[in-house]
Amino acid sequence: MEFRVDRQTLADAVAWAARTLPARPALPVLAGMLIDVNEQGELTLAGFDYEVSARAREDADVTEPGRALVPGRLLADIVRNLPPHPVEIFTKGSEVVVRCGPAEFGLLTLPVEDYPTLPEPPARAGTVPADLFAAAVAQVTPAAGRDDTLPMLTGVRVDLDGDTMWLACTDRYRIAARELTWSPADPDFTAGVVVPARTLADTAKAIKRGAEVAIDLGGGADTLIGVSGGGRSMTSRLLDDQYINYRSRLTGTWSSVAEIPVAPFVEAIKRAALVTERGTPVQLAFTSGEVRIRAATGDSARANESLAVELTGDDIDIAFAPQYLLDGLAGIDTEYARLECAGPTKAALLTGIPDKKDSDDTKDDATDTGFRYLAMPVRLTP
């Protein structure tokens, strides 16, 4: 095996493949990164931990095709710190040699014949623009659970129905959901799966902008999902597909509806949170024309700030964990947000208000921008 490749190209590809390498592998070969080059000048780097596989494909100047398995994390550290010169990689005896300008490293190879066969993705289900997919995944994943004893809650629920895709996460105290349009291979395709949130978030964030993301998903007993785009691909085992009926909880009858300027509201919440301790909420008192934002830590510190808002319906005093509010507001990319409440102890819905099209327009009449964030308030003690 011998090939030559641009250093930055190699660094990006190695970083992608290294994302799946386990810190404590069940088998020594799973700590390896597979390097494969063919006669057509294609370089493939891959990592696999039996749950998630990641592959990166790039063009290279190939002198001799071949494949080798090397310690993956060490290769990633080396490539990340190489000088800005083209990189030559070749096998020499039991070593893979990495040469870049004046720097040279030798890595002892692992037995490539013992490396497990990489899983092949299911059939192509459809495509979605990378930028749209990455933004949608970033909006919902902050609400995913962190408790591994409840694996379903650590995932992203992906529902596909015709040209509509829903992504949703919940940790039982909040639900973040995003509706978007995608291009299915079969207009009648439907599916509902749960994908590990951390895996999907890393994948969506790393795929090159401007690319098309392909979703590979089978039916029946298929337990894999494939996501690929821009020369990068991954497969992941699916989690148990049992999930709450989240969409039914994102509608309701609201007695108080506030329209809030997002950027000033975010800054005010951050300031109020400075005086809170863990578990201390930020209180929001909505009255006609304003919201008063309050927080306190016993008698040692307090914050109080007012912000102009538009309120329709009843005055309301409601409290939230500040980070829950900030996570929801981070998913809104419009100038104004809508907070809909049905009482101080019932879940409240946060959505974006579509920006007006020109100076003569009033706010768009559309209900929201496709992103919905439902959060349980903190019950205030009298």
From TrEMBL:
The keyword DNA-binding is annotated on this UniProt entry: yes
Source species, domain of life: Bacteria
One of the GO BP terms on file: DNA strand elongation involved in DNA replication
Domain DNA polymerase III beta sliding clamp C-terminal, residue spans: 256-356
Every DNA polymerase III beta sliding clamp N-terminal domain range: 1-119
GO cellular component: cytoplasm; DNA polymerase III complex
Assigned keywords, A-Z: Cytoplasm, DNA replication, DNA-binding, DNA-directed DNA polymerase, Nucleotidyltransferase, Transferase
Pfam families reported for this sequence: DNA_pol3_beta (PF00712), DNA_pol3_beta_2 (PF02767), DNA_pol3_beta_3 (PF02768)
GO molecular function: 3'-5' exonuclease activity; DNA binding; DNA-directed DNA polymerase activity
DNA repair keyword on record: no
DNA polymerase III beta sliding clamp central domain residues: 128-243
First-listed, main subcellular location of the protein, grouped into a coarse class: cytoplasm
Stored InterPro entries: DNA_clamp_sf (IPR046938), DNA_polIII_beta (IPR001001), DNA_polIII_beta_C (IPR022635), DNA_polIII_beta_cen (IPR022637), DNA_polIII_beta_N (IPR022634)
Subcellular location: Cytoplasm
Stated family: Belongs to the beta sliding clamp family.
Task of the protein: Confers DNA tethering and processivity to DNA polymerases and other proteins. Acts as a clamp, forming a ring around DNA (a reaction catalyzed by the clamp-loading complex) which diffuses in an ATP-independent manner freely and bidirectionally along dsDNA. Initially characterized for its ability to contact the catalytic subunit of DNA polymerase III (Pol III), a complex, multichain enzyme responsible for most of the replicative synthesis in bacteria; Pol III exhibits 3'-5' exonuclease proofreading activity.
Subunit composition and interactions: Forms a ring-shaped head-to-tail homodimer around DNA.
Protein name, per record: Beta sliding clamp
Species the sequence originates in: Actinomadura spongiicola
Top-level taxonomy: Bacteria, Bacillati, Actinomycetota, Actinomycetes, Streptosporangiales
